[in-house]
Write a structure and sequence with these properties.
Length: about 220
């Protein structure tokens, strides 16, 4: 999945707004997942743990980490960098921080929720996050440095083995590794994190197929 040359036509504008809306919704989804205390996505789960140990907000720590990963992506495959890269780096973490503040300080969501309520919040939050993540990654505007890594690995392996069905497995292994790190640093991991490991790769691939079919019409 490569970021296209910028052509400011209607298609570009529509895909740009799709990307921007998706990354903001991802931040909202992360804040809802945190409320459930059942875990977040693997990357956020790891970053919540490390940022807490460093005394930083999620948004600030995630921005620093993304800048470090960005250097790697620029070296390996800079075609994956685009407006979506900047949008994700700046908006997901800070959107999650803002929405968490609203939920905790304005709406005053109780710290202890019943299991039924937590599951009731988890299901729509999980659907919202996974679909938003898939749409942003397949919008054609580039990806975050974290999300770019499995695409780079997939592209290299596709060239070597001449296969186009490897992304799901690569993304699963990638997210599983990050989940292990989240567990080690006492991050916000749980059943949701494990579900993300299983669901995100297939959903990204499915969303890509749908969007590409619509673009050809």
């Amino acid at each position: 999945m490569k970021a296209p040359y910028i052509k400011l036509d209607k298609t570009w504008r529509n895909s740009f707004f799709l990307m921007m809306g998706s990354v903001i919704i991802m931040g909202f989804g992360v804040s809802l997942l945190k409320v459930t205390n059942l875990g977040t996505d693997p990357y956020s789960a790891m970053n919540y743990g490390i940022s807490a140990k460093l005394g930083l907000s999620l948004g600030t720590y995630q921005l620093f980490l993304n800048l470090a990963l960005l250097l790697c992506v620029l070296i390996l495959d800079r075609s994956l960098i685009g407006t979506g890269t900047v949008g994700n780096m700046l908006l997901v973490g800070y959107s999650a921080d803002f929405c968490t503040f609203i939920l905790n300080q304005v709406i005053h969501i109780p710290q202890e929720l019943s299991l039924a309520v937590r599951i009731g919040v988890l299901i729509p939050a999980l659907v919202i996050f996974v679909i938003a993540a898939a749409c942003y990654m397949q919008s054609g505007h580039g990806t975050s440095p974290y999300d770019a890594i499995p695409f780079i690995i997939n592209n290299k392996l596709e060239q070597k083995f001449k296969r186009k069905d490897m992304f799901k497995i690569i993304r699963l292994c990638y997210d599983a590794l990050v989940t292990c790190i989240a567990i080690l640093v006492s991050g916000e991991w749980g059943v949701t994190t494990l579900l993300m490991v299983l669901l995100l790769g297939p959903t990204v691939e499915f969303a890509g197929n749908v969007l590409h079919r619509n673009q050809r019409r």
